[in-house]
Amino acid sequence: MMKLGQMLRKEPVHDAGGRSGVWDGACHGGHAAQTSGLIAGMQVATSTGWRDVAALQEGDKVLTFDECLQTVRRIIKRWTYTDQGRTPAHLWPLFVPAGALGNRSEMTLLPEQAVMVESDAGEAMFGDPFTLMPALALEGYKGIERMWARKPVEVVILHFDREQVVFGNIGALFHCPAEETVTIAGLMEARDQPGYEVMSLTQARMFVDALIDEDAQDSVWMQEEQRHRGQTTSRRYAS
Predict the structure, then answer these.
(1) Would you call 75 exposed, middle or buried from its count of C-beta atoms within 10 A (0-12, 13-18, 19+)?
(2) Radius of gyration over alpha carbons of the chain, in Å?
(3) What angle do CA 131, 110, 73 make, to 5 degrees?
(4) Are 160 and 73 within 8 A, CB to CB?
(5) How far is CA 104 from CA 50, 97, 101, 198, 238, in A?
(6) How far apart are CA 146 and CA 159, in angstroms?
(7) Alpha-carbon span 159 to 176, nearest angstrom
(8) Helix, strand, coil proportions of the chain in percent (round to 5)?
(9) What per-residue confidence (pLDDT) applies to 83?
(10) DSSP-assigned beta bridge partners for residue 146
């Protein structure tokens, strides 16, 4: 029988332009929406401290997960949820409580923004505790839930020389694309670079189910441990 780790082998889903492949920019049921990128207000780690992603400028240096400080080469700003509350439910953003993804404060994510999650399950299945997946796969995990888009929001997309993962809201991790200028030399160089792998939505949802099961098992273990400690303390006082 195929093991879950084999079923969920991570495979790159980026195309030559650096897009994730989860959303193609098309209209869904007559509705066009920006579904990836960082929402204005997200605090990003930079060379000068934590700053609102909307305040960054091209040339600023941002702290990345694998390559320390890297220069922002291009910034794209767009507005989404501009239809005054008529956004279809499958395109709604996600509310993330404080602490759910290492974030110290609550935040809002677009559904197809790639998020990096650290887990023991990732280490066991893939040999790497850090796993990238579309944010919408995390619905139902640690209190993450869809929220109705009540008003337009500004979306900021940071581009680097190479794709990067950046720190947001003091602990969360988000994928950012490479500069989209495509040259023959650039394509040849990209072949020698491993890049990041983002799970497909189907794979990610299966993996999140495994994370939820893992958390449930950890909760049972903690309850048993607390009960055991309580019994030990009672016997100590009784004696």
Answers:
(1) middle
(2) 20
(3) 80
(4) yes
(5) 13, 9, 9, 24, 42
(6) 27
(7) 6
(8) 30, 25, 45
(9) 82
(10) 94
Distance CA 189, CA 234 (A): 65
27 three-state secondary structure: coil
Least confident interval from 29-33, 44-48, 104-108, 184-188 = 184-188
Phi, psi at 115, each rounded to 5° = -120, 140
CA distance 212 to 165: 24
Query: What pLDDT is attached to residue 90?
Result: 87
Yes or no: say if 103 and 171 are a contact pair by the CB < 8 Å rule: yes
DSSP state of 90: G
Backbone dihedral angles phi then psi of residue 64, each to the nearest 5 degrees: -115, 160
Q: Is 185 helix (H, G, I), strand (E, B) or coil?
A: helix
What is the pTM for the complete model shown? 0.76
- What is the C-alpha separation between 113 and 37, in angstroms, rounded? 6
What secondary structure does DSSP assign to 107-135, as a single string? Answer: EEE-TT-EEEEE-HHHHHHHS-SEEEEEG
Q: Read off the pLDDT band of 4 (50, 70, 90).
A: very low
Q: How many CB atoms lie within 10 A of CB 79?
A: 11
User: Of the candidates 180, 160, 135, 189, which has an alpha carbon nearest to the alpha carbon of residue 66?
Assistant: 160
Rounded to the nearest 10°, the torsion over CA 65, 172, 19, 157 is -100
